[in-house]
Design brief:
InterPro entries: DUF5931, HATPase_C_sf, HATPase_dom, Sensor_HK_TwoCompSys, Sig_transdc_His_kin_sub3_dim/P
Largest sheet: 5 strands, mixed
Radius of gyration: 38 Å
Distance between the termini: 64 Å
Keywords: Kinase, Membrane, Transferase, Transmembrane, Transmembrane helix, Two-component regulatory system
Oligomer: single chain
Protein name: Sensor histidine kinase
GO molecular function: kinase activity
Number of helices: 13
Number of strands: 7
Amino acid sequence: MSVEGPLWRALVAYRVLTCAYTTAVFWYGYDDMDHPLVGGIYLGVLGAWTLGTLGRVTSAERCTRGFLAADLTLALGGILLTMVVDTQERINQGAFTLPSIWTAGSVLAFAIKGGWRWAAVASSLVAVADLVERGSGAGRDTLRNVILVWVASIGIGYVVEVARISERTLARALQIEAATRERERLARDIHDGVLQVLAMVQRRGDQAGGEAAELGRMAGEQEAALRSLISGAPLPAPRTGEAAPQGPTDLRALLAPYASARVTLSAPGTPVPLEPAVAGELAAAVGAALDNVRVHAGERAHAWILVEDEPDAVLVTVRDDGPGIPAGRLAAAAAEGRLGVAQSIRGRLRDLGGTAELLSPPGEGTEVELRLPKRAAAGEVTAVSAGGAA
């Protein structure tokens, strides 16, 4: 339900009641006026206009700019016509203008239709007309009434603008909630059917070998892609040459392309925001660790990436089921000038203000733990060295 609806209905009632009140006030002072017949003709036009345009003030769509201009012109004309119809003595004593408080309805229509800016313009025009009509007789009461109409109309216009913004925000939130629920429903259906079938095909294909193994590999890739889609994983990062992202980058977006049939990515359901340069370096370190898995554990090795968004740090763990790294192998690789682990992984994390720990018991696979404190992730990136895989 729109907040504007009750305001438009209240405006319709206000215009009818104030028109009746204005007519009664006019007939009460009829005999004391200089040209009451002219005033009676104006009141007749005002009454016909009010009743004939009730449908115009029922919604913002029907209350057009042309109608508002004509409505305000009728109110301003009545205020200025009072100088002809009434006596100067009655005007100086504070007698009502011909449209009286009906004029406020015209100003309120501007406020509901266009907000506080439109209300300020309309109420200012009414204020000028009132001051002209009063002339030298304008006193404290006139100024008080002018300011009252001006402040009230602007206040109502501002409230209407805030209500419209709130309604749009609420509508957007409801759309997101509905889309999320539908996505979750589809994810359940897919998980209960398609994903289980693809996982079974992958396992049976690996066991059967030969052409069935290739079919299993393809099924595994499709399972990983579909699982990433239904879990809401973000799109991959821009390629080289594309516009750099503005603001924080979701680390999940940079790690999502690594997921495959043999690389399982587990990440939080909510974004893991980091500065773009920091996120890029952390993702590159993960890529270097996966390169080591392919080179040293073999193409058939399975790897797992676990992303944890802790209160004070971002933790990324890369683990594989390979044979592990023999004792002294990393030191020997560094001595030979192959600095994949030393520079591409540990060097990157060191320059970011984080740490990289490597655990590799023989025969039990390798685990690389990358920890980046959030206070370091919020700072600037220093010079980062890049090396090849060990």
